[in-house]
Structures are given as structure tokens and as C-alpha cells.
Design brief:
The complex is a heterodimer of chains A (421) and B (306). With 421 residues, chain A is mostly helical. Chain A has four domains: 2-49, no CATH class; 51-240, MetI-like fold (Orthogonal Bundle), CATH 1.10.3720; 243-317; 323-355 and 371-420, no CATH class. Helices cover 74% and strands 0% of the residues of chain A. Chain A has helices at 2-31, 50-57, 59-92, 95-110, 113-130, 142-166, 171-179, 184-213, 218-221, 228-238, 242-278, 281-285, 298-319, 323-357, 359-368, 384-395, 414-420. Chain B is mainly alpha-helical and 306 residues long. Chain B has a single domain (64-303), classed as Orthogonal Bundle (MetI-like fold). Chain B has 14 helices and no strands. In chain B, helix 4 packs parallel to helix 9 (184-196), helix 6 (135-146) runs antiparallel to helix 8 (173-182) and helix 10 (200-208) crosses helix 11. Chain B is globular and about 75 Å long. Classes of the chains: A mainly alpha (421), B mainly alpha (306). Chains A and B meet through helix 1, helix 3, helix 4, helix 5 and helix 6 of A and helix 1, helix 2, helix 4, helix 5 and helix 6 of B.
Amino acid sequence: MNNSFLRISIWVYLVIFFLYLLGPLVIMSVTAFNSSAFPRMTPWECLTFQWFGELFQDQRILNGIKNSLIIGAGTVVLSVAMGLAGALMLTQIWPKLRATYYTIIIAPILIPGVVLGISTLVFWDRINRMLGLGADSVLSNGIFLTVIGQSTFIASYCMLVLVARLQRYDVALTEAALDLGATHAQAFRKILLPFMRPAIASAAVLAFLASFENYNTTTFTFGEYPTLTIELAQKVRYGITPSISALAFIIVALTVFFALLNEAKLKRQELVAAARKQATVEELAGKIKLPSFFAGNMAAVLLVVFAVATITVVGTATAYNPGQCIANVKEQKRLEAEQRIQELRKQREEQRKKREAEEAEQGGDQQSAPKPSNNSGFGNVFAPNTLGGDTEEESSGPETPPSNNGGFGGAFDPNSLQTDQ
Amino acid sequence: MPQFLKDFFNRNGFGMGLAILGLVLFWTIGLIILPQLSMLDFSFRPNLPPPEIGGPKDVYTLENYKYLIYGPEGGSQDYNAVDLRVFFRTLLAAVCVTIFNLILCYPIAYYLGQSKGSHIRIFAIMLIIPYWINEILRAFALRIIFGETGVLNTLFVGLGIWDTPFDFIRNDIALYAGLGYAYILLMIFPMYNVIESLDGNQIEAARDLGAPWWRIHWRVVIPYAKPGISSGCTMVFMLSAGALAAPQILGGPSSLWFTQLIYQQFNDNNDWPQGAAYAIVLLVTCILFVLAMMRLFKVNMGDIGK
């Protein structure tokens, strides 16, 4: 009894937890397909793909992607190299220095990104001045500064990944190679590097992703080369459109795809290995050569489902034209707006009459109410007509009065809102 | 040449050794230590136009730090109430976010660490995927949800629970949810790593001896997981105190985060030394706070980052 209760509650907890974790991403992705000019899931207007088109025509986003790729490549090279050197140094450093050294190379992970960005900017600016170079030298170039600033802490991540594998390395292998006449460089290239390759690959992927999504450091160092993240941040801060959701959808889809691909590959390797272990020689020759890709491999199944879904979506996108639906919604909005204006007129008329009747107290109160136009957190983001259209939808519900228009509907007297309009 | 350097070159060869040493020195000294020192030095200098830098006016001063405490000279208030309030609010909020994350993540880490099966791998992927999505986009996703015409408000107003939209953004709920959301993985993974290595027999033994489930956690699991818990908490605290994207996107118009003040000093006021001083204050306070907490909970520095 008690046990099953615990089990149920942990499952409920897991569901809530993953809803919190994944729900926002799902909702954001869905908003990319709603024709509403403000990214939202409800009210659903029309299925549309126009935001993707808009995204691909946005020169700033495309330019940001280009800069991000350049900076990402530079960061991967620099931070994997420094991370590998740092990891090698950690395994052979003088024991008394070890703790200090470890603290120093792990510190960048804990230092706030803002601080790293500032210190990079200040330091290289000073070097630049000391060398007597102008403001357009390499050392004050946005790409250089961003690569340097990001590598400072990304190298620490790489170091952690690499050192985990390096600890399993048998130094005797290098020694054997040296004894057999290899030079140190050869031993490094032919023995150590192949051993480290999987870790180097994951460190490189990690470094690229960390560089691609970094904001805190980059925002101080980017100069004239804004990365995708910087462009996104500016868009999100100064005006939200669903084309950001469209980009998010693409990124989410790519991430899910590669995560599933990787997992399916790992799982398959495991399954093959397990099958090898159990199989007899004949089976290895015949049956196991084609172990069903999907058998016991949930990730592979999901991967295929996901790929099919993507193809369907892209297929529909090319064939589908939401023009009629959008026109309908527009027409409907216009009608509703007209109706609303009529209502407002009527109400205003009534109020005016009422006010005339009992002018003394009522009138003063109404006038003193603050002007409740759309001064919400999002105020400047809404186009006025979208705001209007939105309230229409909400007000169509039976119990809501048609008044909760501004951000703080509750704070204002509904009547004053109506008079204002 | 000292002995350990000679050994080092013997072991790696001269060329390789030089390359390793060069990269490590560039990283540790050129990228980590010198920039921090440079920033520290910079924070003690007055804000001068470029031609005057290095001139007679370029002397050390405490002006930038005084500004944080006392505000502009001849100001109307005795203390720089606005900035100080933002500073303490940031620290307090970071602590709250850390505690919230700890409570939220501990059961998950325990569950993932102690149960076996292939579904754990799928859970792990589901945990990692949000972490690969851009920080800005994650904040944007929460803004869609918490916005005044967002999903939550539509839902609750539609169900008739509230009659007017609740402003999550101005009440900072969106901000805290966003900060917590951003660093969940950094809390779970260190805890998961430690709890995974806990021998299930210990839990079994405690259960056989009659301990209720909460005492098993209190006396067996949590003491064992302490290094993981402390590294998770340290990372989440430092990162949320130093977060910039989430407050910029999810913060209400009036609620500033301390990093936003630093950002303003750099980008809007163009007062780099002032910004550097604020950054130093943030960094030093956070480090001292973490060290104090580690002392309080008797955690060794060496356990962090394992």
C-alpha cells in the first residue's frame, strides 16, 4: 500500500518535472505555426509557415549564424587544444602545485560569464594600448575577443571531459612507443591521440554548443560581429515575433534529432556487442549480421518517427496555403472590433447619461483613474490592433467581462478602461 | 632549470613539452589570471577618455567602490539605495533559486541514480535536450508561457480561476522560474553522479533496520551525496547570481539584476572602471558566500567539481 503510493507519487512527480522541463520548448515550437503576429498558442488562429519564410529572409539572423559558426570553430580549436594541454599537465604536474593548479583551471566555470567578458575586454584593450595599436587592430576585433573570452571557460569544460578519459590511459603505451624508437611527437600523434579521440570528439561538440549558445561573455566582447545569440537577445528584448519561435523550432528539432541519432547509435553498438557475446560462430556469420535496427532500441524507433514527422511537416509546408484562413480570421477580427466599438459607444452613451444624472461623485472618480492603455511589461511589443483582437477572443468567454485589456486589468476600474477607449 | 621542469621535458620531449607548457601558460596566465588582475586594477582607476589614460590624472582611487555604497557625490541620499538594494536582492534571489532547484532536483537525481533500466537513458536525453537549446530561447519560451496573454493566463482565466490575467513578469515569478529552469541540469548531474555510486545495499540495510523513508534520506543518502549537492548548489548559485539573459528577458521593467547594472555601466554609461568595480564586488561576494556556506556545511573544497 505504502509502497505503491510512493511509486505513484514519484511518477506523478516525474511527469510534472518533465512538463516543466520540456513543456516550454514544446509550446514555443508550436507557436511558430500560429499565424498570430505575437507568438502564442491560444487563441489558435491559422496554421501557417510564413514565419519560417520570414526567418530565412532576415539578414541579421543569417549574418549572426555566420558569425556564430566562425566563432564556434575558433573556440573549438582553441579550447580543445588548451583543454588537452591542461589535462596532460594535470596528470603530471608537481604534486605540491596540483591543488592550486586545479583550482585555477576549474575557476572559470564558476566565475560569472559577465565577469569573464569584462576582464577579457579590459585586458586586451590594455594590451592593445600598450602595443600602441589602433582601435581596428586584431586585438580589438570582435571575433578575436569573443573566441578568447569564450575559450577561457569552455577550455575548462573540455579539460574535465578529457581528463576523465586520460585517467584510463596507460602511460606504458607511450613508453613502449618511445622504446621502439618513436619520437615524442610521433608517440603523441599515433598513440595518445587515437586513444583520446572519442573524448576529443565529445569535448569538441560540447565546446561548439557552449560557444554557440553563450550570451553573458559574448555580449561584452562581440564588437561588430554579433553572434546569433546576441541577435536573438536583441530581438527578444525589443520586439517578439513568431519568427523567433520558428528558429527555436528548428533548433529544437535539430537537437532532438541528433540526440536520438547518437543514442540510437550507442544502443545499437551495445545490442550488437551483447549479441556477439551470446552468439555462436554460425550465428555471427548468418543471423547477427542484420540485427533488426529497432529491436529493443527505443531511441531508434523514436528517431524514425521523428524523421517521418519532420518530412510530413516540410511536405505540408510546401503545399499548404493558409491565405484563406488568415483572411477569414482578419475579417472576423474586423467584425468583432466593429461590434466592440458599437458596444463601447453604447456604454459610453449610457455612462454619459448616468454621469449627467449623478455628476458629483461619479465623475470625479472616473477621471482620476490612471490612463490604462497598454502599459504592461510587453506594452510596446503589441501592435495596437493585435491587442484589440486578443481581447476579443478572451471576452468571448461567457464569464469574463470584456474589460481585461491591459497588463494589469485588475488594477484598473473596468469602467475607466472602457471610457478611455 | 628546476628538477620538475627537466622531468617534464624528459617525459614529453622538448617540442611537445614546450607546446603543452605554452598552451597551459597561455590559458592560466594569459586568459585567467592576468585578465582578472587587470580588471581589478582597472576598477581602482577613474573613468578617463582614452588620451588621458596613463597621464597624471590616472591615479588609483576608491571612487568606484564608494559609488556603489554612497551613490553619486552630493547626491540626495546617504547611501546608494537603488544599487545596493539590487545587489542584495540579486544575492537573495540567487539563494532562493538554488534552494528551489535543490528541492526540485533531489528526488529526480535520487530516482535516476538508484533505478535501473533503459528508460533512464531516455530520461537522461530529455534532461540534456533543454540544456542544448539556446539560453535566450529558453527564456523566450518561458516568456511565451508567463506573458500576460500567455498560456498560463489564458488557461487560468479560461477556467475561471482568476478573472484577470496575473502579471507573472512584474511579480518576478517568471524570472525565478526561468533562472531555476536554466540551471536544472547543473544541479542534477553532480548529485546524480554521486547518488549513482551509492551502494543500494546501504539503503536496503537501513530499511531492514526499520528506518522510515525520510530517515533513510536524512541519515544515509544525503550525507553520502553531500559533495554532489554542494557542487550543484555552488554552480547554480554562481550562475544565477551572474545570469544576464534571463533577467533581461524575463525581469519586470522595474526589477533589475545586479549584472544588468554592470551591463548598463559598460554599454549605456560607458563607464568601464565603474562596471569593473561592480563586477569585482559581485565576484568577490559570491566567492566569499560560497566559501562561508562550505564552511558552514563542512564541505571540503576538493570535493567540488568531482
